């Protein structure tokens, strides 16, 4: 039996749709229940409904063989996993943002303070990509507030439409990473359950390619 950890909400719904399109019976995962583990012995699937931030942990430690989670969560968690498929949905960007007047002038600010919900992503980007040391300020609420009240010069956060940024006089200064839903696999499970996991990966990739072709034709 394969155990699949799903991020509660829209990502789980889209993942189940894709699995069903690939030929898997996901009736158990669609059950209207408060149970956190949904199992179908006949289908050979067990679903763990988890918070997105917990999915990489469950997969790394083998509580789940497979997980579906956003790339932002994977980058922040920095777990030892196999990332095998970009599912293409849940698209957004992880960006450095700040006052619009800082556009193309970010490198001129010394000793930057960076507010973010994603301290690992932010520190890794500035240290490894920008080759500079910054002060990271961890926040959990409305990150856009930080530069408005002088807590930080810039922020690192997820940007979808950008509307909240622009309404507060902020703009995207640099893109850190493109974000979308990914399939991850436990390293031991990839070998021990290869007969089940590898065909699933192949079928899911095929469905993603079909969706990508359909999207390209529409555009």
The main pleated sheet reads as: 6 strands, mixed
Q: Report how far the terminal alpha carbons are from each other.
A: 40 Å
What would the average pLDDT be, to the nearest integer? 93
Q: What sort of overall outline do the alpha carbons produce when their principal axes are compared?
A: elongated
Helix amount, in percent?
25-40%
Element-level helix/strand string:
EHEEHEHEEEHEHEHEEHH
Describe this structure in words.
The chain is an alpha/beta fold and 219 residues long. Helices cover 35% and strands 29% of the residues. It contains 8 helices and 11 strands. It has helices at residues 10-21, 55-60, 71-77, 119-129, 145-148, 163-167, 187-192, 194-218, and strands at residues 2-7, 37-40, 45-50, 66-70, 82-86, 92-99, 113-116, 135-138, 154-159, 170-179, 181-185. Strand 7 (113-116), helix 4 and strand 8 (135-138) form a beta-alpha-beta unit. The longest helix has 25 residues, at 194-218. The relative contact order is 0.19. The mean pLDDT is 93.
């Amino acid at each position: 039996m394969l155990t699949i950890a799903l991020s509660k909400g829209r990502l789980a719904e889209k993942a189940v749709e894709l699995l069903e399109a690939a030929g898997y019976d996901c009736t158990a995962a669609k059950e209207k229940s408060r149970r956190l583990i949904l199992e179908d012995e006949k289908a050979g699937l067990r679903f763990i409904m988890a918070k997105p931030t917990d999915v990489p942990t469950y997969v790394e430690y083998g509580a789940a063989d497979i997980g579906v989670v956003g790339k932002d969560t994977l980058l922040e968690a920095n777990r030892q996993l196999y990332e095998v498929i970009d599912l293409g949905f849940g698209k957004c960007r992880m960006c450095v943002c700040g006052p619009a007047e800082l556009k193309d002038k970010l490198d001129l600010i010394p000793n930057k303070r960076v507010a973010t919900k994603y301290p690992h992503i932010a520190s890794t980007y500035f240290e490894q990509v920008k080759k500079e040391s910054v002060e990271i300020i961890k926040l959990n609420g409305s990150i856009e507030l930080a530069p408005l009240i002088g807590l930080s010069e810039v922020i690192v956060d997820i940007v979808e439409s950008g509307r909240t940024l622009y309404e507060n006089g902020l703009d995207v200064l640099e893109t850190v990473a493109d974000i979308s839903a990914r399939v991850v696999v436990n390293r031991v499970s990839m070998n021990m359950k290869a007969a089940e996991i590898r065909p699933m990966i192949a079928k899911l990739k095929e469905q993603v390619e079909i969706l990508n072709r359909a999207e390209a034709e529409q555009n």
